[in-house]
Amino acid sequence: MLIDWFTVIAQAVNFLILVWLLKRFLYQPILKAVDAREKRIAAELASAAEKEADAIREQEAFARKNAEFDRQRKTLLEQAKAEAAAEHHRLTEEARMDVAALRERQYSMLHGEFQNLRTEVSRRTMNEVFAIARQTLGDLADDTLQARMVDVFMRRLHELGASEKQTLSASLQASPDPVLVRSAFELPQAQREQVEAAIRATFGAGASTRFEVESGLISGIELLMQGHKIAWSLDSYLAEMEQGLNALLKTQQPAQKGTEQK
Amino acid sequence: MHLSTDEIILWQHGFFKLNLTIVTTWGLMLLLAVGAKLVTRNLTHEVQTTRWQSLLEVIVITIRKQIEEVGLRQPEKYLGFIGTLFLFIAIANIFTIFPGYEPPTGSLSTTTALALLVFVAVPFYAIRERGLRGYLKTFAEPTLVMLPFNVISELSHTLALAVRLFGNMMSGSMILAILLIVTPFIFPMVMSLLGLLTGMVQAYIFSVLATVFIAAAAGTSETPIDDKP
Fold it and tell me: How far is A2 from chain B (nearest CA, A)?
């Protein structure tokens, strides 16, 4: 017989014992370990998910802050640009005003130099005219220019008005000082005597005369007494010439300013 | 030559006897219990585990998954019985690679015992799930006329299981023994390898069929019963 019933019973019992043994030593411990590990992994995953959520929140907060920062930076940049433009405008205006002031100052300096140059030109012109006139008079006559000047001077004395003569005589008598005759050159004795005679004839016999040389007169002779002065020199002619020259320059200057402004 | 290891009696006293089947089964029981105890005594809950723990976890979880796939929603309840069925049959068959070893599953008494246990386990789990009245009602479905057929079907399941396991195990062992006599060299080794494969397949089929029967009776499965060899 193939089936031994005792063995069947024994094997069934053996198998049930094996079921109990394996339940106790295999399935329960293994399943517990697996469950514990799964729980632990689930907890770790949950923790990781929570951390990820935190990270996402922080990232969003950071992005918001970044956007706010960008906005503020843009605002500040625009403000700085506006301030820079205003400063640029102010500095440009300041520079323009400085340039205008500098130009004005340069113009003044040029004007002064022009005046000096004109004075120098006048002075040289006078000297040249004097030299030319003296040379011309010297060439034309035997007499010297000085003699002609003295003649002219004496003629002027003679031609003085009666009231002038009276006023000058009164002042001459009231002062003990002699009449001062200044000339640009040393007068020869003959001419001195002629001058003294003319003075005495004009202002009275008591008038004494003193002669001085004044090179600044250029070419001429003058009489000084008690604050009064009678003179003849090339200066008077030259002064007229200078006035004419000034008038001519004044008419030219406005025209020049007009062209500079353009 | 012995047809069954039951015939090799080591000790006998009246009805009680100690044959090779029982002794080999004890050896396997000892091996399984001690091995399980040795591995599970230092179980770790960490992600990094020992190789033996990983191996046992793979085995246990795979069995549980198989039970769940058949249709039992709480596989932990059935893991003890069905898992032990698989492990016992598988280990008993794998050891055929050792010369001189006679698998206890090659004994019709053992396979009958296992089939009877499945036969008992089916109504046991069914009653636990549905209650006694619910279980008995399944025999009258779809109509009362089907009652005798359902009873016969239930008995034939058990007989089929027992004979299937016995036939396969015994035939494998016998073919191997015969081939060893006829061609004592290369060919038996190939057959031995084939025997290993069929042993594992038998363990798998026996366990899955037991699960299917239990699932069908417990009423938690939509899977149709497929009575395969």
Answer: 6
